[in-house]
Structure formats: C-alpha cells, structure tokens
Amino acid sequence: MSDSLFAIPPDVRFSCTQCGDCCRSWNVLLGPGEAERIEGLDWAGREDALADVAVTAPVAAGKLTGRRLARRPGGACVFLGADNGCLIHRHFGEQAKPLLCRMYPFAFVRTGGRVAVDCSFACRSIARGSGEPLEVRTPEWLRLLEESPAAEANAPRLDAKRALKPETLWELEHGVAELLNVPELPFFVRLRCAMQFAELSANGDPEAPMAGELRGALRSTLPRRMAARPAEGTMNATQRALFLQEVYAHLNPPPEGEGPRQMREREWVAAGEAFRDGRGNPRVDGQELKVSWSDIRRVSLEAVGAAGEAVLARWLTAAVVGQRFRFAADEELPFGEAVARLALRYPMALWGAKALAAERGTASVGVEDLQQAIRLIDRAAGRIPLGNLDNKQRAAVEFVLRETGAIEAAVLDVTHGRV
Ligand code: SF4
Question: How many domains would you assign to the chain?
C-alpha cells in the first residue's frame, strides 16, 4: 500500500477539537468481535458507574443488524466523560476504542483499486476548514485500513440500466469536481455547469472511444456557455412541496437514540408534513424556530460572498471525491441521480443558512450560518432511507431532481425570498 492509494478531497483540513459532537450524534456500530471486547473492559476502580450498565445495545435498522455502543437519555455515548473526553481512551488508551470512533470523521470506500476518503462535514473542524491538511493522516489511515479493509463499493452505474467502468466514473467525477471549482465563475454557475456536464455525459455510450474527448471539450466549453445563459424559473406547487420535504429531512436528521424507533419516526414524518405545508414556524435541527417563514424569506444572502462560495465548493467537491454523493442511507445511487441529489444540497444549504441567520436575529447570512447548515445536512445525508419511499413518491422526487430547471428554480426561489 502507498500514500497514493488514497483519493483525498482537496482543501479539507481537520484537527479534533474535542467538542464531543460526534459522541452525541451517531450510533457507533461495532465490528466483528468489538462488542465482546468492549463489554469485557473492567471498569471496577476506574469508573464504577460503568461497571453495572449495559454498554452495548442491539441494532435493528433497515438492513443493519448487530450491536452498537449504548447511549444515555439525550443521545450521548455511554462512555462520554463530563469533560467531553472518551472514558475508554482515558483508561485503556486510544487503540481500545471502537474502530469507527478512531476513524471518524473519515470513512473509506474502495472503488476499482483506489480508496476514496469520505469526510463528514458534520464535524465542526472539517466544516470550518480548520486544522491540519489531510495528507499528514495517511500513515494513520494505512494502519486503520489494515485493521479493517475499506468497504467495497458495488460496480458503479450511470443510470438504472447502464453500468460504468471505474475509470469512466473517475473521469466523470473529475469533470464534476473541476467544474465546481472554476475560479472565475460564481458558485451557482459552476453548479449549473456540473449538472449540465452530468446530463450530457449520459447521452450515448459514455465508454465509447470518442466519448472521453467529447467530455474534455464539454469541460472546457461549458463554463463560457453556462455563464452566458440566464438562469430563470420558479418552482411550481409540486416541486416546491418536494423541495421543502427534502429541506426538512436534511436539516432535521431522522431521530436516533433509545426508545421505540417507529414512534420516533412517525413523529419525524408528521413534523415533516407540517413543515412542507408551512404550518407553524419552521423547524431546524429538530427544534421549532422562534421566527416565521416570512422572517426567513427577508434574510439576504448577499454577504456570504467569496468565503461562503469557497465553503460550498469545498463541501460539494469533497462529497464527489470521497464518494459520499453516491450513497443514500440504504442504497448506492447511479451517477446521474447522485449528481442531481448533490446539486439539490446547494439550495437546501442556502435556505438553512437563512433560517439560522433569522433565528440569530440578523438580516443577512454569515459564513458560520452556512457552515452550520452544511453540518446538519451532512449529518442527515447518510441517514435518509430512500427505500422508505413508495414507488410513486420516489418517482416524484426523481422527477424534481432530474429536471435541472427545477433545481435552478429552487436556488432562485431561495435567493429571491420566495420560499
Ligand atoms: S467510545 Fe469514546 S470516542 Fe467513541 S463515541 Fe463513545 S465517547 Fe466517543
């Protein structure tokens, strides 16, 4: 194995700040043998309160089965100390922690001979872009990989019917990442270029000998063409309802923790329907805001500026390079749908940032609002099970997502305070 094995998202940085968020937010799934090892730790004389409590719990969520770390009421891991430190780490050393804890905020996906490094922007350090460059972590990642090989992604697909060679997928991804980072263009135009590139690349046979050359030509001509093409549109009632449904699901992650799962999910779905229909004040991070829909519409996005655009570019590029964009909670998405779902995160992040700014009582969005909205969306992204949608709902969502004009209309509606 060598360092070049890893596909590392550009410009992402990380140093743990011991905020403890990750130990409160996630179910830590345990790998083979880990539950027995963790249950066997001897706490007597170290943390007596842990000697008699269940430290693991069963998992039964969709296709997932096995055991996870137990959580306290409120969601914190049973091993989280009062000072946000990990009690396993303190008493038994870092190596004694579950593998997922040692890997976070990273995960590895193996696709055709390379290992993509997925970065969670739910982590404050990653979202802020603060800390060390990721390259310094490769020796540690090589050790973690030896301990547990990266998950192997299924053979990539272009759409429901057509498979893609991994090399073609990399080239397509490279095109999307390059277009998301054209420096002279506003971010919205870059996103339109990336969506258009994905749409046009799906025409004909993407593996044909000339197709690579055509994609090369697209990459160089799209920025000028899309910059000259005016963006226009307003969401119709159906598109608006579906957009709001997605906004709700991504800004209010599905509930985890103790208690009857189905009851928690029923409440989550009911709150989502109220949000979609504009009943009451909107919700963000599971809480009803003190501000109304019209307060949020009035918040300006103008002050986000170049710093905000850099945050958005880093986030969405990392999702492509790290392969996060290709996964929903319970399935691997074809390339075309994955790019459309990725693009939809942009208007969702703008709406979320406006809502957070309104709640703070300010008239315009700051970069921190955008970072916080991104953290919520990334926290939810791997948890929203598409398999729960019935065929009719799934087809309706796909209609919105695959219609480039609908995503553009969502951006314009959010930007101009119409939603
Ligand atoms: S075991 Fe330690 S690092 Fe892992 S979630 Fe619990 S407190 Fe956090």
Answer: 3
d(CA 400, CA 88): 46
Between CA 67 and CA 226, with CA 116 as vertex, the angle to 5 degrees is: 125
Q: Is the CB of 158 under 6 A from ligand 1?
A: no
Ligand 1 midpoint to CA 80 (Å): 6
**Model-level pTM?**
0.93
* pLDDT tens-digit series, residues 272-303: 999 999 999 999 999 999 999 999 999 999 98
Beta strands of 126-213 (E only): which ranges? 132-133, 151-152
Residue that finishes a domain, picked among 85, 103, 121: 103
State whether the beta carbon of 312 lies less than 6 angstroms from ligand 1.
no
Q: Are residues 144 and 158 in the same domain?
A: no
Ligand 1 neighbour 38 (Cβ under 6 A): no
Counting ligand 1 atoms within 8 A of each CB, the residue from 101, 103, 106, 123 with the most, and so the one to mutate, is 101
Residue 77 in contact with ligand 1 by CB distance below 6 A: yes
Distance separating alpha carbons of residues 237 and 239, to the nearest angstrom:
6
Is the CB of residue 329 below 6 angstroms from any atom belonging to ligand 1? Answer: no
For residue 152, what are the β-bridge partners? 110
146 and 163: one domain?
no
Tens digit of each residue's pLDDT (9 = 90 or more) over 316-369: 999 999 999 998 876 888 898 899 999 999 999 999 999 999 999 999 999 999
User: Is the same domain home to 226 and 347?
Assistant: yes
Range of the domain at 140: 1-18+109-152
Q: Are residues 258 and 340 in the same domain?
A: yes
Count Cα neighbours of 204 within 13 Å in the Cβ-side half-sphere.
11
Instruction: Please identify, among 123, 152, 181, the residue that sits at the C-terminal boundary of a domain.
Output: 152
Overall size of the chain counted in residues: 419
Does ligand 1 have an atom closer than 6 angstroms to the CB of 88?
Answer: yes
Would you give the distance in Å from CA 182 to the centre of its chain?
22
